[in-house]
Design brief:
The protein is of the alpha/beta class. The protein has one domain: Metallo-beta-lactamase, Chain A (4-Layer Sandwich). It is built from six helices and 14 strands.
Length: about 210
């Protein structure tokens, strides 16, 4: 499995494309804001001869779903999300306004609800769904055991964790989920977070200040 990270919108959100040698691709947390960012993503699909077959979200805070309308309109893909986060879609316009972003188009409804233990299959690749709530009620992580790759959204960052002071946040729940679901993975697992640089499970287990 290969990956390409696009840093999008004013929150510097990591939109991730996962793909393999079959040409099938999935998009994780499409945060494209505006035509330039949408074009950059679309051009990558064309130039790399990729076919997007799924859109999945680690959580539904507005900076991670700005591009969900684009993915539906351009590729007919509806987001696969945790049901516990669905209320963010319903209130996306007002949440955006609270952050100073006005005039956005309401995001489309979710197409499928994901839960702990589900598998997302594309091409010759597979992701396991891990439920790690706390940054949001329905926080999900996506893990490829074969490729030692983990997408953590805003649950775990390089040297930090996701904030828990937003609606539905829970610090105890987040710390517990990281310890019990993520830190049990092998040290060599590479981590792509929702913002900022990549890290590894071994690095965070040993040096993340929230756990030491």
């Amino acid at each position: 499995m290969e990956y390409k990270i696009f840093v999008n919108n004013s929150w510097q959100e990591n939109t991730v494309v996962l793909f393999d040698d079959t040409g099938e691709a999935i998009v994780v947390d499409c945060g494209c804001f505006g035509r330039a960012e949408e074009k950059r993503l679309g051009d990558f699909f064309v130039q790399s001869k990729l076919k997007p077959v799924a859109l999945i979200n680690t959580h539904l805070h507005i900076d991670h779903i700005f591009g969900n309308n684009f993915m539906k309109e351009a590729y007919g893909l509806e987001a696969q999300v945790a049901e516990e986060d669905n209320f963010y879609i319903e209130h996306a316009v007002e949440y955006a306004a609270m952050l100073g972003v006005r005039g956005i188009t309401p995001p489309p409804a979710a197409g499928k609800f994901l839960k702990e233990g589900d598998r997302i299959v594309f091409g010759n690749s597979e992701l396991q769904v891990l439920a790690v709530p706390g940054h949001s009620p329905g926080g999900l992580c996506f893990y490829s055991e074969k490729d030692h790759l983990l997408l953590t959204g805003d649950s775990l960052f390089a040297g930090s964790i996701g904030r828990t002071d937003l609606p539905g946040g829970n610090t105890r729940q987040l710390l517990q989920g990281i310890r019990n679901k993520l830190f049990v993975l092998p040290d060599e697992v590479r981590v792509i977070p929702g913002h900022g640089p990549m890290t590894s499970i071994g690095e965070e287990r040993k040096h993340n200040p929230f756990f030491n």
